[in-house]
């Protein structure tokens, strides 16, 4: 069965975004200048290459995730173009109850029950499946115990309040540490496996 892997940046106090959605507190907030150190960049690019499918919320798709990374993939002078090309080439699955047709290339819609749709994707042949967000979508996946591995990119910043991703849990979530890696830019990547 394919693994569903969450990769998400968090503040040191556990928020995926500030209350207004702002990500300026991140060491790299997905802009043109890739401010992560080269070792962290290599980890990210390798993880992207391990997947052939990406799950997205409708909101994230409509806010420009797909077009942003397509444009970045086309800019071969930028080191982000390599992992952006993996995003472009991966099948995107947009979860929605309102859209009737996909308007993005290499993208399909998932319109049914979340658990059924995700488990169906996991049963299909292929490589890993990645999910990045949005926050409410990731929270629902976590609450349903659908994520197999967590790759949490902990930024060296506390923001005090914001949007958490574990707030919909009912009961304890058991995780087993796979790896913890500190990077020169101040980020620590914590990799956990779901154990419940």
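^ structure tokens above, recovered residues below v
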């Amino acid at each position: 069965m394919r693994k569903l892997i969450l990769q998400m940046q968090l503040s040191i106090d556990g928020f995926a975004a500030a209350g207004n959605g702002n990500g300026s507190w991140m060491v790299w907030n997905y802009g043109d200048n890739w401010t992560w150190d080269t070792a962290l960049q290599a980890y990210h690019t390798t993880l992207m290459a391990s997947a052939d499918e990406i799950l997205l919320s409708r909101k994230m798709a409509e806010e420009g995730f797909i077009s942003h990374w397509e444009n970045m993939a086309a800019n071969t002078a930028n080191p982000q173009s390599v992992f952006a090309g993996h995003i472009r080439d991966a099948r995107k699955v947009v979860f929605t109850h309102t859209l009737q047709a996909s308007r993005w290339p290499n993208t399909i819609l998932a319109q049914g029950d979340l658990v059924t749709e995700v488990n169906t994707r996991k049963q299909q042949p292929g490589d890993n499946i990645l999910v990045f967000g949005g926050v409410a979508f990731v929270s629902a996946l976590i609450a349903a115990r659908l994520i197999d591995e967590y790759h949490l990119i902990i930024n060296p910043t506390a923001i005090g309040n914001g949007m958490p991703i574990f707030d919909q849990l009912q009961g304890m979530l058991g995780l087993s540490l796979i790896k913890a890696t500190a990077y020169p830019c101040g980020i620590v990547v914590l990799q956990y496996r779901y154990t419940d």
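The first strand starts at residue 4 and ends at 10.
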